Amino acid sequence: MHRAVIHLNDAAPEKTQTVLQNTANLLAALGPETQVELITHGPGIAVATAPAAEELTTQLTGLLAAGVTLCVCQNTMAARRLTPTDIHPQAVVVASGVAHLVTRQSEGWSYLHP
After folding, report:
1. Any transmembrane segments, and where (predicted)?
2. Judging by beta carbons within 10 Å of its beta carbon (0-12, 13-18, 19+), is residue 86 exposed, middle or buried?
3. Quick one: how far is CA 21 from the chain centroid?
4. Would you state the pLDDT for residue 35?
5. What's the CATH code of the domain at 19?
6. β-strands 35-40, 3-8: how paired?
7. N or C, which end of the chain has less CB nearby within 10 Å?
8. Helical pair 13-30 and 54-65, crossing angle rounded to 10 deg
């Protein structure tokens, strides 16, 4: 079974769209048993907080339904004064986005930063 963490720290809509499309392509190529975590921090947290273009929202909803875990950095939330009610209801809060990336890599997860 494959396991991958995908790093999103950019809020630009075209970057977010690329990351979401890469995630969908990964699942299509490796199969639904692939474990994928989308780790967001810094500006990238916008995918989980800000109203996004309908296309991005549709892509994210489809990925979550396919089993992708959306992880949001607690440090970024604190810096931006966000509460759990400000983030996507399916998001999982991790203490530190970058520390979570390092931990997953040390556990053997593949790292992608499109």
Report:
1. none
2. middle
3. 12
4. 98
5. 3.40.1260.10
6. parallel
7. N
8. 30
Consecutive 10-residue runs of the chain (114 residues): their mean pLDDT? 96 94 97 96 92 76 96 97 92 97 98 96
Q: Find out whether 16 and 52 touch, Cβ atoms under 8 Å.
A: yes
As given in the structure block, the two tokens for residue 60 are 């994210």
* Composition of the chain by helix, strand, coil, percent to 5: 50, 20, 30
Query: What pLDDT is stored for residue 26 in this prediction?
Result: 97
How many domains would you assign to the chain? 1
In this prediction, residue 56 carries a pLDDT of: 75
Q: Would you state the pLDDT for residue 54?
A: 67
- Please report, as a single letter, which amino acid is at residue 23: T
> Which own/partner pairs from 12-15 qualify as long-range (CB within 8 Å, at least 24 positions apart)?
13/52, 13/53, 13/56, 15/114
* C-beta neighbour count of 88 within 10 angstroms: 18
Sign of CA dihedral 80, 74, 21, 64: negative
Strand arrangement of the beta sheet that strand 69-73 belongs to: 92-94, 69-73, 35-40, 3-8, 110-112
